[in-house]
Write a structure and sequence with these properties.
Largest sheet: none
Number of helices: 5
Distance between the termini: 107 Å
Helix content: 40-55%
Strand content: under 5%
Order of helices and strands: HHHHH
Shape: rod-shaped
């Protein structure tokens, strides 16, 4: 199409071959707006709320986990920091847990009692008081 034909048809010169811009509906295909379309105008607020709820649940679960294995549960608050949480999780997994130390100590005491080498009240074979108990005075 030459320039004279384009002017006669009301088409601006150079616009006949353009294939850009949004389609007839005005929205880019397959693009942004998924949460907004599903949840309406409050989609971003709901998505942000779910993100915060996920972080809070993660911190609570990790708090209980650290408390049960005998480590300081306040470290669970670091799970709210995005990159630090990976380091905290790795630290909790690979450190020696106090509860496993206690289990090993109790197995040693049980094995020595079974063999008859550590009688109750025999001070020469005592392994110490159990943590959290008051020793007999």
């Amino acid at each position: 199409m030459d320039a004279n034909t384009a002017v006669q048809q009301g088409t601006p010169q150079g616009a006949q071959g353009l294939a850009g811009g949004p389609p007839a509906g005005g929205r880019p295909p397959g693009g942004a707006g998924g949460a907004m379309m599903f949840l309406g105008p409050y989609g971003s607020i709901v998505t942000f709320g779910l993100l915060i709820l996920t972080y809070v649940v993660l911190a609570i679960v990790f708090w209980q986990f650290l408390k049960k294995i005998g480590l300081t549960p306040t470290v669970a608050l670091l799970m709210l920091v995005p990159v630090v949480n990976l380091g905290v999780a790795l630290w909790a997994v690979f450190t020696e847990w106090p509860v496993t130390k206690e289990i090993a100590r109790l197995k040693l005491v049980a094995a020595s009692v079974d063999q008859g080498t550590a009688g109750l009240g025999d001070p020469t074979h005592s392994v110490g008081p159990i943590p959290g108990t008051i020793p007999a005075g």
